[in-house]
Amino acid sequence: MENIPNSVEIIAPDLDTAIAQAQEELGVPAKDLEAEIVDDENENTDGGLTIRVRVLMPDKTPALELEEVSVAGCQIISQLLGHMEIEAELSAAYQHSTNDEEDPYLNIDIEGEDLGILIGRRGETMDALQYIARVMLRKKMGRWVNLSIDVSGYKNHREQQLRRLAHRMAQQVTQFGRPISLEPMLAYERRIIHMTLQDNPGVRTESSGDGNHRHVTITPDTIR
Question: Do 177 and 101 lie in a common domain?
């Protein structure tokens, strides 16, 4: 039997092109694939912008296994919090993506007192915790699980802040005709800015910078 990979990393001009390439390489319909942007808007040798995307073909999770995955996820996070000597309550639930064709993702909320240390500066500690938990959960379950971690509702609050910021800065860019660079952000925060303004006809967004200095610049369609 041919050994078919369950994931590929693709560099393409945009997310749709990356999924189309993965669909051809993996031989499965696009609706059965999950895409995760590893790095967005890098400059290629021709001067154009590209994104690096990890496209996965996850196993369909039987309904009876959902509880097992939730329990495993909570156990892993509890173990990590124990090593950090942090007491908190966990609640797990499957959330539906904004894309109806994608499988639900496991969201684990961490609630408690004085959890600012768990969030960290600009959510960096929480992001690192999520990455470690994903790696541990994948090893435990034998497959990749789309896991999201939130601490005291930080992500929802941060998303609303970023959407308001994006609209406000876009209005200024349109009014004065000059680009505005935002503060450095995590990858998921930059995606919120890009997605918020993707249908705004007066501006364009692009990411630039390296590592922790990577940020979004909002540019008018026509610079004065």
Answer: no
Give the N- to C-terminal CA distance of the chain in Å, as an integer.
Answer: 61
Report how many helices (DSSP H) and strands (DSSP E) the chain contains, helices first. Answer: 6, 9
Alpha carbons 193 and 82: distance in angstroms, whole number: 34
Convert the pLDDT of each residue in 95-136 to its tens digit. 765 544 456 778 999 999 889 999 988 888 998 999 999 999
Q: Percent of the chain at pLDDT above 70?
A: 76
Which is nearest to 36 in space by CA: 133, 109, 103? 103
Question: Quick one: 163 and 214 in the same domain?
Answer: yes
- For residue 133 the two structure tokens come to 């938990």
- Asked, for residue 1, whether it belongs to a domain, the answer is no
Cβ 125 vs Cβ 119: under 8 Å = yes
pLDDT of residue 41: 59
Structural domain boundaries, residue 109: 63-152
- For residues 166 and 158, the answer to whether their CB atoms sit within 8 Å is no
